C-alpha cells in the first residue's frame, strides 16, 4: 500500500513450514530442504518513507527482541539493495517496523522483515526486484528471504531458494501459532541433526479439501523437530496444548520453537487460542489464517 505522502506499507507474513524434510547437505554446509510453506495474515508490518537520513525505528509488542544496529535484517536488506543497484538513485529512507512475530522462532520473522523491506524499497526507489538472484538473496540475507518475498503457498527446495507454486491452490487454512518463549538458534539445530539424508516430500496429490491436506501432511515430517526438542523440551508442551484443543494436525515450524495447529474453522482456532493463552499467559499464542 502507498499513501499520498509517499509512505509505503508492506505486510511481513509469518512463514509456516507445514512440512520440512532435510534431504542432504551442500559442500558449503547449508542443508538441502524440501518444504511445503504457507504464509499468514498475522505478521509484522514494515513502513518506508522519504527522509533526510537513513533511519530505523521499531515498535510493537515484541520490539525489544529486535536489534536496531547493522545486524538488523531490514538494515541488511537496505544495504543489499544499494550494493546490487549501484547505478540507481537510492536516497536516504526511514524504515519502521511493527514487531508482532517472535524472533528466533522458526516462522521467518527476520527474513519476513527483510523481504518486506525489499518490496517496500523496490517500490520507493523504482528498482527491478525481479533482476535479483534468489541464490544470492538466500545466502546473503537469509535462506527464507526468497520465499518470504513471494508470500504464497510454495514448495521450497535447494536451501530454500528454489520455489515452485503448489499445484492445487490451497484454500485458507485456519491456524493457531504457539510459542513457549524459548529462542532456538537455527544453525545450532541444523548442526545437531544426526540424519541429513532423509526422503524428500512425498509428491503432493490434488488436494480437494482440508481433510485432503491433513491426510497428506500426515505422510510428512519436520526433520528439525527431534534436534529442536533437545534444545527446548517446552515444544512438547506446545504440541500437547494444541492437541488437547482438538487441532486436526499439529507440528513444529522451521527450526522451532513455534508450533502450529490446523483447525476446522476460524471460530475453533479463536476458541483454542484463547484457551491456550489463558492456561499459559506468558506464551505467544495467536489464531490466524493462511494467505491463499
Ligand atoms: O535462514 P538463515 O540463512 O538465517 O539460516 C541461518 C543458518 O542456518 C545458516 O547460516 C546455516 O547455518 C543454517 N541453515 C542451513 N541450511 C539451510 C538454512 C539454514 O544449514 N537450508
Describe this structure in words.
Helices cover 30% and strands 27% of the residues. It is an alpha+beta fold. The strands form 2 sheets. Strands 1, 2, 3, 4, 5 and 6 form a 6-stranded mixed β-sheet that branches. A 4-stranded antiparallel β-sheet has the order 8-9-7-10, with helices on one face. Strand 3 (55-59), helix 1 and strand 4 form a beta-alpha-beta unit. The longest helix has 16 residues, at 109-124. The protein is globular and about 55 Å long. Bound molecules: cytidine-5'-monophosphate (C5P). Cytidine-5'-monophosphate is lined by residues 30-31, 33, 142-144, 159-160, 186-187, 190.
Distance from N terminus to C terminus (CA atoms, Å) equals 19 Å
Average pLDDT level: 95
Strand content: 25-35%
Name the ligand types: cytidine-5'-monophosphate
Could you tell me the number of beta strands? 10
Structural class: alpha+beta
**Helical element count?**
9
**Helix amount, in percent?**
25-40%
Which runs of at least 5 residues are low in confidence (pLDDT < 50)?
A: none
Order of helices and strands: EEEHEHHHEEEHHHHEEHE
Principal-axes geometry comes out as globular
Largest sheet composition: 6 strands, mixed
Radius of gyration, taken over Cα atoms and rounded to an integer in Å: 19 Å
